[in-house]
Amino acid sequence: MRSSLVRMLLAGSTVVTPLVAQQTGTVSGTVAATGSGAPLAGASVVIVGTARSALTTEKGQYHLSVPVGAHTVRARLIGYAAAEQRVVVPAGQTVTVDFKLTATPLALNEVVVVGARTSRTAVETPVPVDVITSQEMQENGHTEVNQILATLAPSFNASHQTIADGSDHINPASLRGLGPDQVLVLVNGKRRHPPALVHVNGTFGRGTVGVDLNALPAAAIERIEVLRDGAAAQYGSDAIAGVINIVLKDRASGIQASSVAGVTGEGDGEEVRGDMNLGFGIGERGFLNVTAEYLDRQATDRRDHIQARSSCARFPQRTRIRCGRSTRTRSRPTG
Questions:
Q1: Of the four listed, 249, 282, 297, 310, which is most buried by Cβ atoms within 10 Å?
Q2: Residues 231 and 183 in one domain
Q3: How many Cβ atoms are within 10 Å of 71's Cβ, its own excluded?
Q4: What predicted TM-score, i.e. pTM, was given to this entire model?
Q5: Which residues contact 214 (CB under 8 A, 6 or more apart)?
């Protein structure tokens, strides 16, 4: 009984196979460039409306097994205009379809790019990490580390305070809009201690204690690594906003000296900075790196401009005041 069943199945298979072969055909041909006739490798040839497709070889040849009937064959390649042909495929036969593609400029969709003040340095990391070198710090033009970071590092903000007690000297800084005590500052990978000052006035970060980055001379810094993402799981709650790692110079020889001077367009706010970095070798592997910095920043005064703008907005009076860039004479009406 088993042997007869096996024979029936084998017989059935020999009958069905020729029927299936007779229901398909083959589409083959070449894809070449118009004009030169050079074969195009890697071109995609598809049967429109189906999932059947093939890529051309180095000689521009392709072969496709398709059902019997009428089909639309499309060939396309990046940098070339697509081409289509209508064919009828008989059962068990091969139809030759050759394509000539014309080169055309590549049209792309509109690309929207969100700009930033600096490019991301470490592009392979899963979180945004920026590395600011000493060369970039020197070319920046600012004299304080807080202001340098505020210019070069995205999401970092620090500004000078006015009439804010100790906050005038230790500027509260923020990363990603969070408080000064939620940014972890490391020096050579070790936690930097915060000062004893608590911001108690009406300034940003009131009630917090942040690290004074300006206490570190800019000339002593080799690079600054900024992690712009939360790292509380690794460092603790004071790294919610991110981590700033300051790497100091480790040169064992040589002297570097520089000076910077500047003034505002109004003639005040003079800044003078002079620094020197000196390295010594100790033994075979040790070194001593010393940095000295002098910084003098004068005050800025805009009271005259504020009073002039206030006078321009008041009721006209008999006086000569400067409104913007023009000088006008106004008189008080009598009667």
A1: 249
A2: yes
A3: 23
A4: 0.53
A5: 144, 145, 146, 170, 171
